[in-house]
Amino acid sequence: xxxxxxxxxxxxxxxxxxxxxxxxxxxxxxxxxxxxxxxxxxxxxxxxxxxxxxxxxxxxxxxxxxxxxxxxxxxxxxxxxxxxxxxxxxxxxxxxxxxxxxxxxxxxxxxxxxxxxxxxxxxxxxxxxxxxxxxxxxxxxxxxxxxxxxxxxxxxxxxxxxxxxxxxxxxxxxxxxxxxxxxxxxxxxxxxxxxxxxxxxxxxxxxxxxxxxxxxxxxxxxxxxxxxxxxxxxxxxxxxxxxxxxxxxxxxxxxxxxxxxxxxxxxxxxxxxxxxxxxxxxxxxxxxxxxxxxxxxxxxxxxxxxxxxxxxxxxxxxxxxxxxxxxxxxxxxxxxxxxxxxxxxxxxxxxxxxxxxxxxxxx
Length: 363
Fold this sequence. Notes:
Elements: H1 4-8, H2 11-24, E1 28-32, E2 38-41, H3 43-49, H4 53-56, E3 66-70, E4 87-96, E5 102-111, E6 120-126, H5 128-180, H6 186-213, H7 216-220, H8 223-238, E7 241-247, H9 255-276, E8 280-287, E9 291-298, H10 305-310, H11 315-326, E10 330-335, E11 341-348, H12 351-356
Parallel strand pairs: 7-8
Antiparallel strand pairs: 1-2, 1-6, 3-4, 4-5, 5-6, 8-9, 9-11, 10-11
């Protein structure tokens, strides 16, 4: 049976190979003597910590770099330190860099068996990028959950307004009409007429609120009919001429896609109506088979996009972008003072998504 020396070559041949591995491996490696003094480091550790080999070897103790370790049983602590173990295959430690920063790293340690001085080898891998990615995934899931819960609550409140408050106001209106047809004195008749007008206005307001919360057309008929209904309300309320051009196949999309696109267009139109001083607004809806592209263009006064976002005034823009990103899409806003505003949103969509969803055509 061959030994590891025979399989890998003579010890003389192994030295350059081991040195090359030590120098070029992407994980940081440091060697510590029995007293905790650093006796050897590789280039990856220098890059990770900012310290040079000359600053570390023979000058630094391991505790000057390590701020405590954590395992699946304990939070970050110095108790039961890896330095006391013969071998610890996996743990997390907090590493201090030369400029005073602290960040988590994954590590493993092993004491060299043939070394009479009891040297310990510590292999370290930077976990900050992985943790950032994990945090972003968690934030993505949380935001998606919040938006879905918000839409469900909007739908519930809109239904309650329509079926509850709206129907009650309608009954009051019918009753006032009956009373108004009776023989009444002029002052009382005028009072009844005033109540009729107030009730009618209240019904219109309830209807408007229900539509703003969740238009029934979005669930029953699809995205394009809901957008056309939104256009009519904007034209009536703000006096802006709105045109919609739809290109490509007319079909239903996944509910999350339709809701996101509707909210993005709604926010863009609301911003135009409130701030742009525009007289015309155009919407181009393109079904490109694998993606949906919606372009909203107005002839308003425009604005400085970067300045608005940096000053924290663009919360609506952040919301639009968040909705697009949750579906793997993008949102681009192009504007400048005096040049109007263009909003372009792209949402990828797979063919099977529509086949498994509602196959009715979007009218």
